[in-house]
From TrEMBL:
InterPro entries: Amino_oxidase (IPR002937), FAD/NAD-bd_sf (IPR036188), Zeta_carotene_desat/Oxidored (IPR050464). GO terms for molecular function: oxidoreductase activity. This is NAD(P)/FAD-dependent oxidoreductase. Signal peptide: none annotated. It comes from the Archaea. The lineage of its organism: Archaea, Methanobacteriati, Methanobacteriota, Stenosarchaea group, Methanomicrobia. Pfam families: Amino_oxidase (PF01593). Residues 10-404 form the Amine oxidase domain. PANTHER family: PROTOPORPHYRINOGEN OXIDASE.
Length: 409
């Protein structure tokens, strides 16, 4: 049996590994590098992800995969501190003392926010799917908490669609990020970067006989009798990890879900100084062409990189703003008093389908693993609801692989 996998990101690679045990597997990846949104840049002395990534304590499938690939000694737990940039000032918000000192919420607001954080893991996310996040926060925490704390975050991430976003997404985010101590969140990382995981998965798949074709876009998917034709090659089954609406476009078949997506434009900068006062994740309340400054070298040790590495995170709808790279870099240098000579390098990664927008009712449009004879899995699959993650993408790949194997047997 020959199986085609469209997309060489985490889901595609996670599916390929078990499928190679019973079938021939070919992976088509349109980009030169594997990994999807987990792909990395190669600098002179280190690798760095094009989009910031870390994992969480409950990511059991990810940890199992790391063990199976013999990479456990490359995995580590680190602490991620947080802050909020308001009115030109960096406010640390990691320790209880720092939160108490934060001047833009009243003590009562902070108590309500803290209680929600403690309750988040026990809330029924299914019951929140149809509830807008903005409505939920206003009702449970009050207008002031929404306006001064949550609304800027939702606006920077979802723009004009912020009022459509489900409370299930927001509460899941709060719950998963509540594993923290006085030094910050407990977050997982690979010592040499996540490219070690991507490379390990690809190498293992190839050892088992998988063919991986990078820089190869799929131009058409066509039904041929009892099989499929992809780029002129015949396959018994096709697994597509790209957005469902793109599958419909390539196959010419209707009926695939129109999953709401947003794009991401993420700038990575190498420079000679820390700009966030030691904070890893700095959310921006002040208007800026990016919604967060993620100082990677305030998370992973700076000595591995020989310079500071910082991300500027922004999101968009149909397409990014014109001249975005210049706009982001100029604003960053002005806002954080960074002379251009202090910037060693910068890269802008742009992905139109960076992730679903988890609008109200999203649970009702999640595609099945098999539709119209094709197999589908990815960021849009149920393990990635109500928030995408590496764990969810690996789970989707493994679950759809089991579905394919079961159908064959």
């Amino acid at each position: 049996m020959d199986i085609c996998i469209i997309g060489g990101g985490l889901t595609g690679l996670a599916a390929a590994l078990p499928l190679t045990e019973t079938a021939g597997v070919t992976i088509f990846e349109s980009r030169p590098l594997l990994g999807g949104c987990l792909a990395s840049y190669k600098r002179d002395d280190y690798w760095i992800e094009r989009y910031y990534h870390h994992c969480f304590a409950g990511d059991e499938r990810l940890f199992s995969l790391i063990r199976d690939l013999g990479l456990s000694d490359r995995f580590e737990w680190l602490s991620g501190s947080t802050g909020y940039y308001v009115d030109g000032t960096i406010h640390p918000l990691t320790s209880p003392i720092e939160i108490l000192r934060y001047p833009h919420l009243s003590l009562a607001d902070k108590v309500r926010l803290g209680l929600l954080t403690l309750r988040a893991k026990r809330l029924d996310l299914a019951a929140l799917d149809a509830v807008p996040a903005s409505e939920y926060i206003r009702k449970n925490l009050g207008e002031s908490v929404y306006a001064s704390f949550f609304e800027p975050l939702l606006r920077s991430k979802f723009g004009d669609r912020r009022d459509e976003v489900s409370a299930a997404w927001l509460i899941s985010r709060i719950a998963i990020r509540s594993d923290r101590g006085v030094e910050g969140e407990r977050l997982g990382y690979m010592r040499g970067g996540w490219h070690e995981l991507v490379d390990g998965m690809a190498e293992e798949a190839q050892k088992r006989g998988a063919a991986i074709e990078t820089g190869t876009s799929v131009t058409a998917i066509r039904r041929t009798g009892d099989g499929w034709e992809v780029n002129g090659q015949r396959f018994d089954a096709v697994l597509a990890t790209i957005p469902p609406q793109e599958i419909g476009r390539l196959s010419g078949m209707g009926g695939f879900a129109e999953i709401p997506y947003q794009g991401a434009a993420c700038m990575t900068i190498g420079l000679d100084r820390d700009v966030t006062n030691g904070i890893y994740w700095l959310n921006m309340k002040d208007p800026a062409p990016y919604g967060a400054v993620v100082a990677h070298t305030n998370f992973a040790p700076r000595e591995r990189y020989g310079e500071e590495v910082v991300y500027l995170a922004s999101y968009f709808g149909e397409k990014p703003a014109p001249n975005l790279k210049e706009t982001m870099l100029s604003d960053f240098c002005r806002r954080f008093s960074v002379p251009k000579t202090a910037v060693h390098w910068s890269e802008l990664a742009v992905e139109r389908f960076a992730g679903p927008v988890y609008t109200t009712g999203f649970a009702g449009i999640i595609p099945a693993y098999e539709e119209h004879g094709l197999y589908l899995a990815g960021m849009f699959s149920r393990p990635n609801y109500p928030e995408r993650s590496m764990e969810g993408s690996i789970a989707a790949g493994q679950e759809v692989a089991a579905r394919i194997t079961g159908a064959v047997q």
